[in-house]
Amino acid sequence: MNDAAAPSGPSPSPTLGDAMRFAFGTLTVLPVRLRRWDRPAARGGMLCAPAAGLVIGLAAAALGTGLLLLGGGPLLAAVATAAVPAVLTRGLHLDGLADTADGLGSGKPAEDALRIMKQSDIGPFGVITLLFTLLAQVAALAQLYGRGWADGATAAVVAAVTARCALTLAARPGVPPARPEGLGAAVAGTVPLPAAATAAAVVVALSAALGSTHSGGYGALHAALAALLALAVGEAALRRCRHRFGGITGDVFGAVAETTGLAAVVVLALG
């Protein structure tokens, strides 16, 4: 994900509109104009991150389901579903995943690894990670669409919402920025832990509700478990990056989101 200057200075409490603009303006390419770039707005924006994920997930589910119902087949539906989040984020999360993989794989000290992550090119670790991540996403989604459009659509929404919820959790206190500037510095420590936990609980409940619509109690349990395990995988990725780089960056946010989303669709494809 691209970095920008960190907000600073005291500011009045943001409105819901400010929070939504921050979430959609930083996490999507939708034409949303940012009116505030300060820590209160960042706090609201990161709490609203799952809402941005919901819009992305619904768009991905709509395209995948439409192609499937038109006879396109599970594989084409899966490719389209995986492509929509990349388009609506201008590939920033995928770019962050690749840059983070290059930094982690470099084996260099944190300062040098962060410098590698800021370079515009993608190294071998990044290419390999992107390749297998996208292949795994498409394979899992194709299996789910093979069961029926509802399974694939549910996975698209659950993965997108859970991936952005992982960013909400990553913005809690105790997770420092790796650089004094950029998106990581803008949002680091802005979301109180109780609020982050509440957001996670809402996302798990939403996932359960989506799963129950077509598979009853088993679907609810399966989808809730997928969200919980995906958030745990995202937390593990975050901890690894904190240990390796000393904190979070915009690239780390992208890596956490992609890792979490992949974990969600894989768990939903199992069982």
TrEMBL record:
Localization per record: Cell membrane
Principal localisation: membrane
Entry-linked InterPro entries: CobS (IPR003805)
EC identifiers of the protein: 2.7.8.26
An MF annotation (GO) of this entry: adenosylcobinamide-GDP ribazoletransferase activity
Keywords, alphabetical: Cell membrane, Cobalamin biosynthesis, Magnesium, Membrane, Transferase, Transmembrane, Transmembrane helix
UniProt catalytic activity: alpha-ribazole 5'-phosphate + adenosylcob(III)inamide-GDP = adenosylcob(III)alamin 5'-phosphate + GMP + H(+); alpha-ribazole + adenosylcob(III)inamide-GDP = adenosylcob(III)alamin + GMP + H(+)
Domain of life: Bacteria
Pathway: Cofactor biosynthesis; adenosylcobalamin biosynthesis; adenosylcobalamin from cob(II)yrinate a,c-diamide: step 7/7
Family, per entry: Belongs to the CobS family.
Biological role stated in the UniProt entry: Joins adenosylcobinamide-GDP and alpha-ribazole to generate adenosylcobalamin (Ado-cobalamin). Also synthesizes adenosylcobalamin 5'-phosphate from adenosylcobinamide-GDP and alpha-ribazole 5'-phosphate.
Protein known as: Adenosylcobinamide-GDP ribazoletransferase
